[in-house]
Task: structure prediction
Amino acid sequence: MRGVPSGVWAVASALGGLPVAKAWAKQAAEAEAWTFRNPSCGDRETMSSLRFLAEEAPFLAVHGRSDWAHVCGADALIGGWRSLPWEILKARVSGSRFGVSLHELEELSHAASLGVDFAFFGPIWSTPEKKGLLNPRGLEVLREACSFGLPIIAVGGVLGAQQAAACREVGAHGVAVVRAVFDAAAFRSVCQGWNEGGP
Result:
């Protein structure tokens, strides 16, 4: 079983089939890990994309779908608030890592009690996806999240070097980016900020 990568995680969100997945993979090549969620295509196209990404990825995690994770041989499965209960998903994981995506410190206690391998936590900064739903948590709450003893992947509004470095400085194990992957300069900046920042 592979360890949980530290560094930049690129999130493949709403990909629309294999050609889009191939283009996305080129953009995300510098990341230490990739995750896959909420495709905008049917299951057959999704599996073609996932199989390709699994072959190319340094480390691949799938959000919410244990069947997809199993078929493509993903390195990890990630449970969230819309997925099956974490206990059920964790029981389906064999030979790979199990992480969770959460937004509240109280949820971290539950996650730690389940023995999860890592947690996505955010949004740290404002992000269009969570606007009107969740307020940004900020760096001090992220620092507290990192004190729970789990590898924390900070997510939400990470768009440049200063933000990536700041997350690392408060103890994050990694940062996850969605929008920045599609902006080569922004993605390069995030990777540089992570690699040069922190203790």
Remarks:
- Helices lie at 18-27, 43-56, 66-72, 86-91, 105-114, 138-145, 161-169, 184-196.
- The chain has one domain: 7-196.
